Amino acid sequence: MASLSSNYVIEFKIDVIKTLKIAGISTGLLTAIGLGAYYIHRRSQTSKRVILRDEVRNILRPFQLTEEQLRRVMANLNTEMTNALKVDDSTENDLAMFPTYVHHGPSGKESGEYLVVDLGGSNFRVSHVFIEGRNRMRLNNKIFLIPHSLLLGEGEKLFDYIAECLQRFIDDNKLSVLKAADYRFDLAFTFSFPCQQKSLREATLVSWTKGFSCTSVVGNDVVLMLQQAIDRRKNLPIQVVALVNDTVGTLMACSSNYRDCKAGVILGTGMNACYFETLDNIPKWKGTRDNQTKQVIINTEWGALGRNGCLDFIRTDIDRELDESSLTPHQQVFEKMISALYLGEIVRLIIVDLVQRSILFPGRMQKSPSIRPDYNIFLILRGSFYAKHVADIENDTTDDLSTTATILTSIGIHDPSYDDCFIIREVCKTVSLRAAKLAAAAIAVLINRLNMSSVTVAVDGTLFRHHEQFKQNLSRTLGRLVLRAHRLVLSEDGSSKGSALVAAVDRRLKTSPMAYEKNLPS
Ligand code: GLC
């Protein structure tokens, strides 16, 4: 490491000085000799680094996007969005642009008690939400881990497991105590996968994303599947009243505080967005169209952009390699360049490439056979480098890159050199910057489509919440791409709170259908 080698140089200089002094040579001459030796040493170090960095630069260059490329991404996304609003044709259109049957934001008059099941990652969350009027919500929740076997197994088993966890949650929190014998909890199901909806409570899963692959669910109504699993337990007093994508929950939760909040974005394990669209702009809309129903939230499912090749001009060999070896080749092309599930893997594949070219860890495998197995785990195992590693390494500002060294050691790369750490930090920065720029380009399209004088975009997801550099790059790029006033607001717990709000708005409109007219956020 650099600090060690410079200590070594200093000690070496002192020893030489002592020896020469004994031989009677003057201090000035000694200093000149010492500095000369040190300079030669540094030059050899620096020139070695420049050669390395030029090679690395060539490998990273395709990941560095220009503003012109970003504007082309924006134009392509915008065209795909418009086309997919015309007709449901999954062979022609990359995007689904699903109408969600959520027509109104919260008015502030919603109230009541709701359960929410939030399923979208490798664990799921059950929440008990109390809505007590404008901006006042209480939430108690519990996270349940999903055994990996269930993510890839029989779908009915996944739903049975969810029902079992619901039962445990109700029992542990004694929620049924003091309830009338015929009381049934209203449950909103935050299900963060592409679903074609026929109403708020009818939703057919079109495909799995984000590494899920349970059988016998695609093509089925997931609301019905959850309700049937609940009913199989006999004494679980729950009715599923709404299916909500996490982006929609994020938007709804934020719009109770920000009247100009009209879009919701998730930048996490997956990446997606929704926004309010006027029905007149949705030729494929077959549902109600009257004075009270003029807009609907569209779940864009924009992570699917690129299936038909419109992103090929920026895709790299690494993107293709990642896609081919994923559970869903040729799908979610845009998502695979941005979301947290894939960022670490992109970095890992670049590292593997650099190792194969002997740029990283040169000679280490041969010199240290004892550490070979660890290296191999990292080099062979897909998904063994996480977005969190990317974030932490990118943020490493220590002089000797000790944070990076510690992270690398923790995943089996023992004693990396300063140069190794330096290069890996460059890789992380580049991949993360590309993701932030692409996310900014997509959000810019939303802001332009909304065509408002100022707009708030609700955002949630680990990349936005915990990856500070990503967030800064996102905001900076967005500022360059759009002229309209906008702000990005973190929608805390949005996907659970917001889903409860969707159920609450629905309940309120059923009991007093005209109520929203006075209270609709403008
Ligand atoms: C994936 C899903 C989408 C979800 C997003 C964020 O892209 O397809 O429905 O909103 O991940 O969780």
Describe this structure in words.
The protein has 522 residues and is α/β, with parallel strands linked by helices. The chain has a domain of 320 residues: Nucleotidyltransferase, domain 5 (2-Layer Sandwich), CATH 3.30.420. 48% of the residues lie in helices and 16% in strands. It is built from 19 helices and 13 strands. The strands form 3 sheets. Strands 1-11-10-9-12-13 form a 6-stranded mixed beta sheet, sandwiched between helices. It has a 5-stranded mixed beta sheet with strand order 4-3-2-5-8, with helices on both faces. Strands 6-7 form a two-stranded antiparallel ribbon. The site of alpha-D-glucopyranose has 17 residues, from helix 7 and strand 10.
What's the layout of helices and strands?
Elements: H1 2-22, H2 27-60, H3 67-86, E1 98-99, E2 111-119, E3 123-132, E4 137-145, H4 148-152, H5 155-172, E5 185-191, E6 195-199, E7 202-205, H6 222-232, E8 238-244, H7 246-255, E9 261-267, E10 271-278, E11 295-299, H8 317-324, H9 335-338, H10 340-356, H11 364-367, H12 372-380, H13 387-394, H14 402-410, H15 418-450, E12 454-460, H16 462-466, H17 468-481, E13 485-490, H18 494-511, H19 515-519
Parallel strand pairs: 2-5, 5-8, 9-12, 12-13
Antiparallel strand pairs: 1-11, 2-3, 3-4, 6-7, 9-10, 10-11
